[in-house]
Every structure is written in structure tokens, then in C-alpha cells.
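Tutorial, part two.
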Amino acid sequence: MRAPVSRRRRAALAGFAGSPQAVPAIASKRQYGNERMLAIVCQSDAEESATAARELVAAAVDGLGGATPRAGLLFTSTEYDHAVLLAALQARWPGLPLIGGTSDGELASAAGFRHDSAVLTLLSGDGFDVHVGVGRNLGADIDAAVDAAMAGLPAQPAVCFTLFAPSTNGSEVVRRLQRRLPPSCPVVGGLSGDHAQYGAMKEFCGGEAMQDSLTVMVLTGDVGVGFGVGSGWFPIGPEYTVTRSDGHIVHTIADRPAIAAYREHWGAVPVRAEFGAYPLAVFPEGLDGPHYLRAVLGADPDTGAIRCAGEVPQGALIRMTEVLPEGVLAGSQDAARRALAGYRGTAPRVAFVFSCAARKWILGTDASKELGLLQQTLREGGVDPALAGFYAFGEIAPSQVGGSSDLHNESCVTVLIGE
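Running the prediction step on this input gives:
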């Protein structure tokens, strides 16, 4: 793994939006909800972990206005000492059910888009109950990790949030989670990120920070839920057949090493950190059927096999894809509109956003526009919830209302939660 780059230096090199200067923690300016469900979002851009922890707690206490949180989600840069952040939250609210993970950048209605910050969302109220779980060593044994994370699952779950490591076939993880739940309960969330270091990701549960883990938070009760998925990438060029694959590892395409398809189309293979901007469009039922995107996380220089963020079935047809920045932003608006259209409830209190890290790489200095468009689209739809999210290495939600949850790549997933 490469040596870490300081957050200020990395932001300057990348030219991303978001100030590299430390910004005091900001909580939502108003409470989003009532005694049934109250949501607040806090965000700190402090350089030091202890300072960020103090700021988050202070902002949260102020935002809660005397209410007691019943659930928490924490999205944060890899550069913080996560044990310090988690210890501060558990010290203030002992036993707080919390999950979270590291990110490739954070989005929040508190202080906006930041390349390196900590975003804390707290939910309180008497209209829902919470169950959290964790499974370890996900890459070695998916079944054991899912069994551990879902142990003690309550009856009649309304929504299941999950954050897990991109260490295995994420598609299979989502499938096995969904099988443990009724069809009416969507699985939503994202895969932890790490600024393309591909090894520094962590997941959180309670007061513990882990690697290669699966975390879940299930909400039960009279909970309103809506979700939407949008992308913006479109297939181009000829189709190829995947002639040998094993889950998320594609060995050969058209009976040649998989990387040859990249060379044939793009000429030079992009460096590892840029692979995510060149996803494959996978047509499992033929070119006349639906397709989904699969991000390529890396290639084996010896065999030419490529490693994707989710499975690519053997025998499927694939095409290369392309995107323009305006297409990325249009996909974000689609995600928000679909979440609004499918919302089952009366009043969304918080919008969670899980957007692909490659979308941020494509947008560059315009990355902050994604957050702005999401907020604008929700307000045009008549709602103005708190918003929290992060740039992920995979996004999770059903493709449509009534469908099973899927692992998406290069996508923006918007999830509305409320009454």
C-alpha cells in the first residue's frame, strides 16, 4: 500500500471542491422531525481526531435539544483515529447502536461536501426500534459473516442499512442479506472507501473499528422508506462475451485475457486509481435485456484477469461505457426523484446518499454540485430533509420498488427515511 498523503496536500493535488481548511463542526440548523422520529446531521472538518470528536459531540448535543439518540451512522475519512471518534460517542451515549465506515469523501447538509471530514447522523424518537449486528472476516466466509451480523434479527423489519468491506463478491453478500429479510424490507447502503488506497477501509459497529467486516442496522416500526438509483454512464462500442469468470473475477473475455478488451478499446490501460471511471456494462440476458454496471478495481498483470466490485456472470455480454459530467449529475437527480416517487410514508426526515467514488473523480472540482442538485431536487419534490452520505466503492439498493436489493457501481443511491 502506498504511503498516505496528507489531507490538505491530497485535496490540493486533486483540485476537489471543499475547503482544505479546518471547519468547526456544524449541526443541522433545525430539528428534522418530531417525537416519532427526529434526525440531525453533524459534520466536522477538524484536523485532529480528538478535536473532531469533541466538535461532533457538542454539535450533536446542541442539535438534539435534549432528545436521546437511539441510532447513529458515522461516515468518515480514513485519516482520523477512528477509535478516538467512536470512544467519544460511546462515552457521551453509552451503548448507542451505531454503524458506519470510511469513505472517499463525505456529503452532508451540515457543512456540505468535504474530501476529508466526519459526518454523524443521529436518530431519536419513539416511532421505531433499532437492531445492529456485525460479521467479521467477510472475505474468508460470507455465510459466517452474514449469520453473525443478522443474529437476533427482529420481526417485521422496515429497512436494513449495511456497510461492508469491498473484500469479496459484494453481489453475493447483498443477495444473502436479502434472503434473510422479507421482500418488503430493502437492503441499502454502501461499501467502505479509502481514497483509492485499496487497503485502508474500515467499518464501525458500536465502539469498534474493524477491517474486512459486515455491519448492519435494521429499523423496525412505523418507518417510512423510499429509495432510488441513478447513474449516467452509457454503453458504447462492440459487445464481448465473458468466457470465463469466477464471481467478481473476470479471467477471459472473448477467450482472451480480460484486460485485452480494455486495451482494444482504450489503447492504454488506465492506472489503478482510475480504473473505476471505466466500468463495464453487463447484459446478463442479452443486449435486448437490462444491464448493470461493474466497476473494475484492478488487474492481475501476470494473468490479465480483472477484479470487479461485484460479480460478472460467465456467458454474459459486456460493453465498454462512457460518461460526461452532466450525465453524472443527471443520474443523481434521477436517484432523488425515484426515492421521492417510491417513498412509503408521510414525512421524510433524513436522506442518506451513497454515491460511487468514481462519480467524484469524474466531477473533480464540480463534486460539490452533486450535493446541491440532490438537495434542490428533494426541495422541488416538496421535502427538505437532513442529508448525510459518502462516496463509496459500491452502492446498495433495489433497482425498483418491489425488487430485491442489488449491488450497483458508478451509481448514486438516495434513501429517504422518516415517518
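The two ends are 44 Å apart (CA to CA). In part three we will examine how such features are distributed along the chain.
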